[in-house]
Amino acid sequence: MVKPDLILAGGGLANCLIAWRLAVRRPEIKVLILERDHRLGGNHTWSFHRSDLDAAQNAWVSPMVAHDWQHHQVRFPQRTRQIAGAYRSATSDRLHHHLMESGIAKVRFGAEISQVASDAVRLADGTLLEARAVIDGRGQRDNPHLVLGFQKFLGLEVELDEAHGLSGPVIMDATVSQADGYRFVYVLPFGARRLLIEDTRYSDGADLDRAELRDAVTAYAQDQGWRIAREHREERGILPILLAGDLDAYWNTGEKGVARSGLAAALFHPTTGYSLPFAVRLADAIAEHEDLSAPGLHALTYAHAVNVWRETGFFRLLNRMLFRAGIPERRYLVLQRFYGLSEALIARFYAARLTTADKIRLLAGKPPVPILPALACLSERALYRRESRSQ
């Protein structure tokens, strides 16, 4: 086997997009993806707003986009609103087929990784694979240096007996009973009778009761008057919601000098958990970077993560207010108020590109959480220290 220039440890979204972008921009770079399962991307639907990416980025990810809508809706007890602006859903099936059919990178499936270094990977069977550089994209790791809440979800992709009548996604239906924190149902119409229905909870704990969430999804369908004829697949996950942390300490835990991507690099929207826009931006940055050596990639990915961390500090503040100041069953009031703001501000929020005026607008007026607990959430460092001492 020819020694690769770059080994991507893990075949998840972030590493697949890096391989994809390098194949287009830097085809001379030989890339090897190591994936422990037998398909790339897992079993996922990654949704995003068209405004999260620029025109060029939207164009190059289009092969993995399975569905496009021109508007979406939110529903709360005191507010229902349709919002203009394209909403897109990419799928792991599309990602896998695009990478495999185009031969973008060599892939080794069934590759269980036991150890990662900056320029080599050792597999569980003892095989040592060397390269100029390695990027670790094996997902979120347990780490005491991040204070987290959790976004837990379970979705069923189903076929109905009759047409559902939706013209676009319902990205938050919080008119449902509130349980286990802030709860909403997320609905994507994939066809006239085909839906992905997800029950989602913003919770303090990471426990996911699969049976309970499945029952909640089927109950929601019944409440909407939808009769499920068949179930095509199940999708579930637990996403981190960032409240506070020490990014330097996080990066210094584990293998030294190893470049990172995706959740392993803490690259995701702190509040929504959306990861695709952040993975696209990192893939572009790597493809444009001249030095793809191990030290060069470590320096680039670390600096990129630091920049994102600094730019998204305000979202961690909002998360602290939501999780630490908000009464769990009344957390929906924060989002209900948010969706009364302008469509332009909402778009900038999802893109993680808030202006100073946006931040002032979000905090202005009577807060939807108790004032004293909200004030106690202002200091990220104080919460991090308290949580660190308690562990």
What's the layout of helices and strands?
Layout: E1 6-9, H1 13-25, E2 31-35, E3 45-49, H2 55-61, E4 65-76, E5 79-91, H3 92-102, E6 106-109, E7 113-117, E8 120-123, E9 128-130, E10 133-136, E11 146-160, E12 170-173, E13 182-189, E14 194-203, H4 210-223, E15 228-245, H5 247-252, E16 259-260, H6 276-288, H7 294-311, H8 313-325, H9 332-338, H10 343-350, H11 356-363, H12 371-376, H13 380-390
Parallel strand pairs: 1-2, 1-10, 2-6, 4-12, 10-16
Antiparallel strand pairs: 3-5, 4-5, 7-8, 8-9, 11-14, 11-15, 12-13, 13-14
Helix pairs in contact: 1-6
Description of the molecule:
- The model has no long low-confidence stretch (mean pLDDT 93).
- This protein folds into 3 domains: 6-70 and 88-140 and 248-311, 3-Layer(bba) Sandwich (FAD/NAD(P)-binding domain); 146-241, Alpha-Beta Plaits; 313-390, no CATH class.
- It is globular and about 60 Å long.
- The chain has 391 residues and is an alpha/beta fold.
- It has helices spanning 13-25, 55-61, 92-102, 210-223, 247-252, 276-288, 294-311, 313-325, 332-338, 343-350, 356-363, 371-376, 380-390, and strands spanning 6-9, 31-35, 45-49, 65-76, 79-91, 106-109, 113-117, 120-123, 128-130, 133-136, 146-160, 170-173, 182-189, 194-203, 228-245, 259-260.
